[in-house]
Write a structure and sequence with these properties.
heterodimer, A: 111 residues, mainly beta, 6-stranded mixed sheet, 5-stranded antiparallel sheet, 56% strand, globular, B: 114 residues, 4-stranded antiparallel sheet
Protein backbone atom coordinates (compact mmCIF):
# COMPACT_ATOMS: atom_id res chain seq x y z
CA UNK A 1 0.00 0.00 0.00
CA UNK A 2 1.06 3.58 -0.42
CA UNK A 3 1.91 6.25 2.13
CA UNK A 4 -1.15 7.45 4.02
CA UNK A 5 -3.62 4.71 3.19
CA UNK A 6 -6.92 4.81 5.06
CA UNK A 7 -9.32 2.06 5.84
CA UNK A 8 -12.12 1.40 5.57
CA UNK A 9 -12.71 3.02 2.18
CA UNK A 10 -16.33 3.60 3.11
CA UNK A 11 -18.16 3.60 6.42
CA UNK A 12 -21.87 3.99 7.05
CA UNK A 13 -23.18 4.46 10.59
CA UNK A 14 -26.19 5.81 12.44
CA UNK A 15 -26.24 9.18 14.10
CA UNK A 16 -24.93 8.94 17.65
CA UNK A 17 -22.56 6.08 16.93
CA UNK A 18 -18.81 6.41 16.94
CA UNK A 19 -16.79 6.28 13.73
CA UNK A 20 -13.25 5.00 13.59
CA UNK A 21 -11.01 5.42 10.58
CA UNK A 22 -7.50 4.09 10.28
CA UNK A 23 -4.48 5.23 8.35
CA UNK A 24 -1.22 3.43 7.66
CA UNK A 25 1.98 4.81 6.26
CA UNK A 26 5.35 3.45 5.22
CA UNK A 27 8.16 5.94 5.79
CA UNK A 28 9.23 7.86 8.87
CA UNK A 29 7.24 11.01 9.51
CA UNK A 30 7.49 14.21 11.52
CA UNK A 31 3.74 14.55 11.85
CA UNK A 32 0.44 13.27 10.56
CA UNK A 33 -2.61 15.37 9.78
CA UNK A 34 -6.26 14.54 9.27
CA UNK A 35 -8.42 16.48 6.85
CA UNK A 36 -12.09 16.45 6.02
CA UNK A 37 -13.61 17.09 2.62
CA UNK A 38 -17.28 17.58 1.96
CA UNK A 39 -18.30 16.35 -1.47
CA UNK A 40 -16.60 18.41 -4.16
CA UNK A 41 -15.38 21.00 -1.69
CA UNK A 42 -12.12 22.05 -0.08
CA UNK A 43 -9.95 20.33 2.50
CA UNK A 44 -10.57 21.34 6.08
CA UNK A 45 -7.78 20.72 8.56
CA UNK A 46 -9.00 18.74 11.55
CA UNK A 47 -6.01 17.86 13.68
CA UNK A 48 -2.24 17.44 13.57
CA UNK A 49 -0.35 14.95 15.68
CA UNK A 50 3.42 15.03 15.94
CA UNK A 51 5.57 11.93 15.80
CA UNK A 52 6.42 12.21 19.50
CA UNK A 53 2.75 12.33 20.50
CA UNK A 54 0.59 9.27 21.02
CA UNK A 55 -2.86 10.74 21.38
CA UNK A 56 -4.59 14.04 20.79
CA UNK A 57 -8.13 15.29 21.35
CA UNK A 58 -10.11 18.08 19.78
CA UNK A 59 -13.79 18.26 20.64
CA UNK A 60 -15.40 15.03 19.44
CA UNK A 61 -12.22 14.00 17.64
CA UNK A 62 -9.59 11.70 19.05
CA UNK A 63 -6.47 10.84 17.10
CA UNK A 64 -3.91 8.24 18.02
CA UNK A 65 -0.52 7.61 16.50
CA UNK A 66 1.54 4.45 16.78
CA UNK A 67 4.88 5.08 15.13
CA UNK A 68 6.05 1.51 15.78
CA UNK A 69 3.16 0.25 13.65
CA UNK A 70 3.20 3.28 11.35
CA UNK A 71 -0.49 3.77 11.87
CA UNK A 72 -2.97 6.33 13.09
CA UNK A 73 -6.65 6.30 13.88
CA UNK A 74 -9.29 9.01 13.89
CA UNK A 75 -12.26 8.51 16.17
CA UNK A 76 -15.33 10.69 15.86
CA UNK A 77 -17.59 10.25 18.86
CA UNK A 78 -21.35 10.77 18.94
CA UNK A 79 -21.48 11.26 15.18
CA UNK A 80 -23.92 13.63 13.52
CA UNK A 81 -25.36 13.71 10.02
CA UNK A 82 -23.22 16.81 9.42
CA UNK A 83 -20.10 14.66 9.89
CA UNK A 84 -20.87 13.01 6.54
CA UNK A 85 -17.75 13.65 4.44
CA UNK A 86 -14.53 12.07 3.25
CA UNK A 87 -11.68 11.94 5.72
CA UNK A 88 -8.04 11.87 4.67
CA UNK A 89 -4.84 11.39 6.54
CA UNK A 90 -1.76 13.13 5.21
CA UNK A 91 1.85 12.63 6.16
CA UNK A 92 5.10 14.37 5.45
CA UNK A 93 7.87 12.11 4.21
CA UNK A 94 10.50 12.69 6.87
CA UNK A 95 11.59 16.21 6.01
CA UNK A 96 9.93 16.67 2.66
CA UNK A 97 7.82 19.78 2.22
CA UNK A 98 4.99 17.89 0.62
CA UNK A 99 2.02 16.15 2.18
CA UNK A 100 1.19 12.66 0.95
CA UNK A 101 -2.50 11.89 1.12
CA UNK A 102 -4.31 8.59 1.28
CA UNK A 103 -7.39 7.77 -0.76
CA UNK A 104 -9.64 8.63 2.14
CA UNK A 105 -12.54 7.11 4.03
CA UNK A 106 -15.99 8.14 2.90
CA UNK A 107 -18.12 8.43 6.02
CA UNK A 108 -21.90 8.50 5.83
CA UNK A 109 -23.82 9.25 9.00
CA UNK A 110 -27.48 8.38 8.64
CA UNK A 111 -30.00 10.45 10.61
CA UNK B 1 -9.93 32.33 11.13
CA UNK B 2 -7.60 33.33 8.25
CA UNK B 3 -8.35 31.64 4.95
CA UNK B 4 -6.62 30.74 1.73
CA UNK B 5 -8.73 32.18 -1.08
CA UNK B 6 -8.88 30.69 -4.56
CA UNK B 7 -10.44 32.07 -7.71
CA UNK B 8 -12.29 31.13 -9.78
CA UNK B 9 -14.19 28.32 -8.07
CA UNK B 10 -14.89 26.67 -11.41
CA UNK B 11 -13.21 27.19 -14.78
CA UNK B 12 -14.02 25.56 -18.09
CA UNK B 13 -11.44 25.78 -20.83
CA UNK B 14 -10.81 24.39 -24.29
CA UNK B 15 -8.08 21.82 -24.72
CA UNK B 16 -4.84 23.54 -25.71
CA UNK B 17 -5.71 26.82 -24.00
CA UNK B 18 -3.69 28.39 -21.22
CA UNK B 19 -5.26 28.77 -17.80
CA UNK B 20 -4.16 30.65 -14.73
CA UNK B 21 -5.48 29.63 -11.35
CA UNK B 22 -5.22 32.23 -8.65
CA UNK B 23 -4.70 32.01 -4.92
CA UNK B 24 -4.28 34.42 -2.06
CA UNK B 25 -2.45 32.61 0.75
CA UNK B 26 -2.71 33.61 4.39
CA UNK B 27 -0.83 36.87 4.80
CA UNK B 28 1.89 35.85 7.24
CA UNK B 29 2.54 32.46 5.67
CA UNK B 30 5.82 31.82 3.94
CA UNK B 31 5.35 28.48 2.20
CA UNK B 32 2.90 27.98 -0.64
CA UNK B 33 1.72 24.85 -2.39
CA UNK B 34 -0.42 23.57 -5.20
CA UNK B 35 -2.12 20.19 -5.05
CA UNK B 36 -4.61 18.58 -7.38
CA UNK B 37 -7.33 15.96 -7.02
CA UNK B 38 -8.66 14.16 -10.05
CA UNK B 39 -12.29 13.20 -9.49
CA UNK B 40 -12.54 10.19 -7.20
CA UNK B 41 -8.80 9.97 -6.63
CA UNK B 42 -6.39 11.04 -3.93
CA UNK B 43 -5.00 14.51 -3.46
CA UNK B 44 -1.60 14.79 -5.15
CA UNK B 45 1.22 17.22 -4.49
CA UNK B 46 2.29 19.38 -7.40
CA UNK B 47 4.72 21.99 -6.17
CA UNK B 48 5.97 23.93 -3.15
CA UNK B 49 7.23 27.50 -3.27
CA UNK B 50 9.33 29.43 -0.78
CA UNK B 51 11.34 32.61 -0.94
CA UNK B 52 10.21 33.25 -4.52
CA UNK B 53 11.36 29.96 -5.90
CA UNK B 54 10.21 26.39 -6.29
CA UNK B 55 11.49 24.32 -3.37
CA UNK B 56 10.07 20.96 -4.43
CA UNK B 57 7.99 19.62 -7.29
CA UNK B 58 6.45 16.32 -8.27
CA UNK B 59 6.70 14.36 -11.51
CA UNK B 60 3.28 15.74 -12.44
CA UNK B 61 4.66 19.29 -12.46
CA UNK B 62 6.22 19.19 -15.92
CA UNK B 63 7.10 22.01 -18.31
CA UNK B 64 3.43 22.71 -18.94
CA UNK B 65 3.09 24.00 -15.38
CA UNK B 66 4.53 27.10 -13.80
CA UNK B 67 3.99 29.04 -10.60
CA UNK B 68 4.48 32.67 -9.80
CA UNK B 69 4.09 35.09 -6.96
CA UNK B 70 3.58 38.25 -9.01
CA UNK B 71 3.09 40.52 -6.01
CA UNK B 72 3.04 40.30 -2.24
CA UNK B 73 -0.30 38.58 -2.00
CA UNK B 74 -1.12 36.43 -5.02
CA UNK B 75 0.21 32.99 -5.91
CA UNK B 76 -0.68 31.59 -9.32
CA UNK B 77 -0.54 28.28 -11.14
CA UNK B 78 -0.35 28.43 -14.92
CA UNK B 79 -1.01 25.53 -17.22
CA UNK B 80 0.30 26.46 -20.66
CA UNK B 81 -1.56 24.12 -22.95
CA UNK B 82 -4.29 22.24 -21.15
CA UNK B 83 -5.05 18.59 -21.80
CA UNK B 84 -8.20 16.66 -21.02
CA UNK B 85 -6.35 14.87 -18.23
CA UNK B 86 -5.67 18.20 -16.51
CA UNK B 87 -9.32 18.24 -15.48
CA UNK B 88 -9.25 18.15 -11.70
CA UNK B 89 -9.77 20.14 -8.55
CA UNK B 90 -6.72 22.29 -7.87
CA UNK B 91 -5.99 23.27 -4.29
CA UNK B 92 -3.73 26.04 -3.13
CA UNK B 93 -2.29 25.77 0.37
CA UNK B 94 0.03 27.65 2.65
CA UNK B 95 1.78 27.29 5.98
CA UNK B 96 3.62 29.49 8.32
CA UNK B 97 7.08 28.12 8.78
CA UNK B 98 9.68 25.59 7.90
CA UNK B 99 8.63 22.00 7.79
CA UNK B 100 5.16 20.68 7.34
CA UNK B 101 3.23 22.27 10.13
CA UNK B 102 -0.48 22.85 9.90
CA UNK B 103 -1.18 23.37 6.22
CA UNK B 104 -4.25 25.42 5.37
CA UNK B 105 -5.97 24.66 2.09
CA UNK B 106 -8.18 26.82 -0.06
CA UNK B 107 -11.58 25.66 -1.23
CA UNK B 108 -10.22 24.74 -4.64
CA UNK B 109 -10.71 25.56 -8.30
CA UNK B 110 -12.49 22.93 -10.33
CA UNK B 111 -10.86 22.93 -13.78
CA UNK B 112 -12.75 21.27 -16.59
CA UNK B 113 -10.94 20.87 -19.91
CA UNK B 114 -13.24 20.18 -22.85
Amino acid sequence: SQQGEEDPQALSIQEGENATMNCSYKTSINNLQWYRQNSGRGLVHLILIRSNEREKHSGRLRVTLDTSKKSSSLLITASRAADTASYFCATDEGGSEKLVFGKGTKLTVNP
Amino acid sequence: EPEVTQTPSHQVTQMGQEVILRCVPISNHLYFYWYRQILGQKVEFLVSFYNNEISEKSEIFDDQFSVERPDGSNFTLKIRSTKLEDSAMYFCASNQGQGVLRVTFGSGTRLTVV
